[in-house]
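REQUEST FORM: STRUCTURE PREDICTION
Request ID: SP-0412
Submitted by: Lab K.M.
Chain count: 1
Length (residues): 682
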Amino acid sequence: SAMIIFYNLFIPTDPAEAKVAIDVLTEQLGQVATSLKEVTNKKPTLQSAILYYNLIGNDATFPPTEINALCRKLHPSLECKLSGFYKQASEAVTLQDIHDFCRQEDTDQGTRVTYIHSKGSYHQTLVNMNWRREMTNSVLHPDCQYPPDDRCDVCGSSFYTRFSTIYPGNMWTAKCSYVRKLLSPREGGEYDNKKVESVAKFLKYRLWGQLHSSLLEDRIDYFGLGRYRLEHWIGSHSSIRPCELHRQNVTFELMVTGQVKPEHYEWGMGPRREEVVEELLDATKRLKTDEDAQFREYYYLPGNLLKWFTLYGSKGVPSSKSWAWSFFPAGDKWKKLVEKHGENAVEKMVMESAEDFHSAFSENHERDAFKVNGEDEALFADSTSTMTVFYHISFPPEAKKRQSSVLAFKTQLDLLATGQYDIVSRAYEKRRKVLLYYSIAGGDDKLADFVTKQCDAVKSRNVECRKLAQFESYKAKGETLHQLHNFCLAKPSQRVTYLTNQLPTQYGSKWPEIQISQKIRAFTTAVTSNMCLKSRDTCNVCGMEFYPLPYNHFTGNMFTASCEYVKDLMPPAQFEIKMNEVASDALVSQLGHVFTTELTPFTPQTLGMDQYSVEHWIGSHPDFQPCDVAPVSRSWFPLSCGGSYYEADYSRSNVYDFQWSIGPRRGSAPNGRIDCKTRAKN
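STATUS: Completed
RESULT:
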C-alpha cells in the first residue's frame, strides 16, 4: 500500500513571489519524504507514497517535469502526479479530487488520504510559515497516517469545536469512508449553496430572537462563508470522529509562533479543546451559568445542528452515541428535541418559542382558481356601480384582542353598509352596491354564525356577503389576499378593495397599539372613499397613507387596487417563499458589509419574512403607482417621537379632511418605524 497525498500548490507569476512559492514547495515535499521514511520504519508494508497535485497560477517557472523529478530525488518511492493546471482556482479543485477519489468504486473505504496546501506561498509571513510547517508535520505524522484508534475519521494538529468543527488552517488526513459522506466541495456546487443556506437560517432565527451568537462577533470566516467555507468542509458532517496530534494544553498561539516541539505531541481522540480565538468575556461568563443561553447559543450545539441538518438532511442527524450530545452544553435537551423532530428540530424549537414566527398561509388549504357565480357575474358588467371587497376577518384567541376584533368587524361592516365617503359633502353616500367576499381566521362556529347573521342584517343595506373560507388558526392572515389575487386573474378589468379587522402590529414594539377603533374606521373609510375607488391612469393602488420606508406599504395594510396591476403580482403564498429567500440574501450580504442598516435595523417585519410578507405584497411590483388620501401636513394620531398631530374624534366622518395625491409624498417611515434620534439626524 502507499501513502495517498493531495497537494494544492500555488505558484505566482511574479518572479520574486514565485521563488518564495518554490521554496515552500521544496520544504513541504521534503516533509513528505521524511514522513515516508518514518512511516515505512513503523509500517513495513507501506513502501511508497503517491502525491497528486494541482498547480495553480504559473507552470513555467517550475514546470511539472521538474516537480516530479524533485520528488524522486527526495525519495525514490515518492511519486508525484500532476492532476491539473489552472490559471486561477481555489482549494476546491483539490478537495474535489479527494472527494472523487474516495467515491471511486475501486477505492478501499479504509484508505486514508492526506490534504496539504502551500500556505504562505503568496503571503509569506512568519505566522504562515510556522503554521504551515506544523500542520504539514502533523498530518504526515505516523499517528495521523495510521491512528492508534481506527475509529478516528479525520486527524490533524488540533481539532476545535468553535467557531466550527474545524482543523484551523485546513490540513488533515481523513478516512475515505468518512469523506464519501460529505457533499461535493465543487465551486458553486451544493455544498457552497447549502452552507450559505445554513447561515441564512441562523440569521433569520436570530432575528426572531430565538437563537443567539454572543460568544463571537459576526465575521464571514467564523460563519464559513466565501473562501472560508472550504476550511469548514472536512468537519461538516455530524458523524465525524476526530482525533488530533497536539496534546490538550497546546494552544493555537503556540503553533503559529513556532513553539510546538515533538514533546508536545500526544495523540488522542477529540474533541478535547473548544475555542480557536479569544471570545467575548462577558458572554463567556454569562454562558457558564445561564442554561437557556447555552441552549440557544449558535456556537454551541444549535449552530452545528443547523449546519448538519441543512447540508445533509436526515443523514446529518447525529447518532444517539455521538460525542456531540455530551460535549456541548444543553446536549441532553437538544438530543430529546432531535429524537422527536429529527432534522427539523431547530426550526420546530424556534416556531414553538416565537409566537410571531409562522406563515401567513394554511398548510393544507387548496387554492383553486376563483369562480364567480352567475348571480354575481351581472354585477361586474358595470364596475362603477359595484364595489368588490375582499375582507379578512381575524379572531385572535386572547379575550381582549378578540373583543377588539369583533368591534372592528361590526364597525367596518356598518361603514360598508352606510356607503362610500365623499370629500365634498364629508358624508357617506350609497353610490355603489358592495359585494363582500370574506374569510374567517380563528374563532369558533359561534363567531362564524355571528358573522353570517351580521351579513344577513346588512343585505337590505346594499351589501351582499359571500363566504370564501374559514380557517381554524387566526394566523392564516394571507389567505384572503390569495383569493383577491385569483379574482383579479379572472377579472382583470375590475377594481378590488382589501380590508382587514386587524391592524398590523409593529414587530418588537413595547408600545401597545392605541386608538385601534378610530384607526380602523379611518383606514376603512379612506380605501372605500370615492377618491380611492375612482379609476385613474396615474395610480393603480390607493390607501390611507403610503410610505416608501422601510418598505413600500400603506398604513393598516388596507387598499383599493386595479386588477390590471394586481394580476401581475406574484401569488401571495409564493411571494412569502420568495421574500424569505430575499431576506436570506440580505442577511448574508449584511455579514459581508455589502450595505448598512443604520436608518432602520433589520427585523422580520422590515424584511417581509414569513407572516410579514403580506404587508410587502401590494407594493412589490416595479409597475406599482401608489396614491393616498391622508393629509401630509400633520398626523391624525399621536407620534412616539413627538411632532404635530391633529387631535380629533375620528369616529365622526366630518373631520376626515382627505386630500388625494400621487405618492410617495412622505419621505420617511410611519410613526415608530425609525429610531427617534436617527429620524432627527436624517
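NOTES: The first helix runs from residue 15 to 42.
Reviewed by: T.R.
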